[in-house]
Write a structure and sequence with these properties.
Elements (H helix, E strand, L loop, with lengths): L3 E4 L8 E4 L2 H10 L7 E5 L4 E9 L6 E10 L7 E6 L3 H13 L4 E6 L10 H21 L6 E7 H6 L5 E5 L15 E5 L7 H9 L3 E3 L11 H12 L6
Parallel strand pairs: 1-3, 6-7, 6-10, 7-8, 9-10, 9-11
Antiparallel strand pairs: 2-5, 3-4, 4-5
Helix pairs in contact: 2-3
């Protein structure tokens, strides 16, 4: 059986002890039913995975002993940024989960002209905590030891004014599929909301050098399209980058 993997928000080091917080203690001891003497892999998102032995399987304050570095993940060769327009509830959770599995290094949640979801006030902090946990859980499942960076809310125009990557692709249902392989370089992929980007937004993106990218004649849902587009980019890079 594969070793259980758990992300922790802590500084990790070999030959040290650690008491897990109540949430992760409950998950490890109640949900995963781990017991004293079981071994797990702990990681903090910095590319190092530590073998750890459970000393006390307390579901409120599980105590573990870190033994040694068991796995490493090198820094990414390039940055793959997903600029995802805000979409509703569980659909956005799904995109964050699958984008993590597909190797995205940076996630920008965008407000656009046709964005239907607006989060303000104290809800922002709660939702950001929720989204961060989605990313952590996806990394636990897929084997990543480095977490994507969640950049929070940004207006599309703000991101276009200072693009974080050398090349940008704009997903556009009316555009032709890519006819040449994208360069192996820092890349920003822009995905619109349920109603798509406006004409003005598409023109603004193209004015910064963005290439339009289509996915054929079928109309994909807002939570399916980014996964298809990310898979195309990863396949073009032979799944070797980031």
């Amino acid at each position: 059986m594969a070793r259980r993997r758990l992300h922790v928000d802590a500084v990790l080091a070999a030959n040290t002890a650690l008491t897990l917080d109540p949430e992760r203690s409950h998950y490890l001891c109640r949900v995963l039913r781990q017991r004293r003497g079981d071994h797990v892999l702990l990681f903090a998102g910095d590319g190092l995975g530590y073998e750890a032995e459970i000393d006390s399987a307390d579901p409120r304050a599980c105590e573990v002993r870190l033994l040694a570095i068991e796995a490493t993940e090198p820094p990414p060769r390039l940055r793959l940024h997903l600029g995802q327009a805000m979409i509703k509830g569980e659909r956005l959770d799904f995109v964050l989960q699958k984008a993590t599995e597909l190797g995205v290094t940076d996630i920008w949640l965008l407000e656009t002209e046709r964005t239907e979801v607006r989060i303000t006030g104290p809800r922002v902090s709660r939702r950001e905590t929720h989204w961060q946990r989605i990313v952590e859980s996806a990394a636990e499942q897929c084997g990543r030891l480095r977490l994507p960076t969640l950049h929070g809310h940004a207006a599309l125009n703000t991101l276009l004014a200072d693009p974080p990557a050398a090349q940008t692709f704009l997903l556009d249902p009316g555009a032709a599929p890519l006819d040449t392989a994208p360069a192996v370089a820092d890349t920003l992929l822009l995905i619109g909301p349920e109603g798509g980007f406006s004409d003005a937004e598409r023109e603004a993106a193209r004015a910064t050098g963005a290439r339009s990218m289509g996915l054929g004649k079928l109309i994909l849902r807002a939570d399916t399209a980014p996964l298809a587009a990310l898979s195309i980019l990863r396949q073009a890079w032979d799944w070797n980058a980031p």
